[in-house]
Amino acid sequence: MTQHTPRQPFRRFLYENGLSLVVTALVLVTLLGQTLTGHHDYNDELKQLGRPELSLGEYVRSGHWLEATFENWESEFLQMALYVILTVKLRQKGSAESKDLDEPEEVDREPNPYLTDAPWPVKQGGVVLWLYKNSLSIAFLLLFLGAFFLHALGGTEVYNIEQQAHGEPTVNVWGYLGTARFWFESLQNWQSEFLSIVSIVVLTIWLRQQGSPESKPVDAPHSETGK
Questions:
Q1: Are residues 21 and 14 in contact, defined by beta-carbon separation less than 8 angstroms?
Q2: Which of 4, 49, 69, 181 has the fewest beta carbons closer than 10 A?
């Protein structure tokens, strides 16, 4: 069946970038919802602690907003970093998310610097090429570390407000990293992301979604590995 690509520039732009545009819109809508509901929820907590309420502008600069936002982003970036790294070597028979069990695949070949449209790092070679060859996992790991720090920074502020309200000593960021509370917040999110990886790896052995690149063809045998 022939796929007809729109010719008008704007419609073509939407067609070529539809996936990222829709998912970005979902991120913004849910982030807005989280911000509005988190604002009300946190003000309720502050009233109970005898502290003044925050305006919406103050809330998005508060530790509570930082903690709530980056606690989740942290686990997402960790998930993607590990998924990219683990799928380089590890296999799962029958999964659409695995590389072939026996044959090398296109992604395994060494980059060719003589291709006309090869990216600049490929033609440069050396350390630049090594960084580019691993740039996806490096980017996700750096994003994870950034979100990890912002989660700790925001959590420290919220934790100290609660400590002050109860007459308990406050901590700095490093002290907060040593609390069970910080690791409880992190680990409960991390395990849910690892569960989602296991789910898609295993369920794609037997289940299908016609038209999705994350699924094997509907008529593919369960033992077929890869897309």
A1: yes
A2: 4
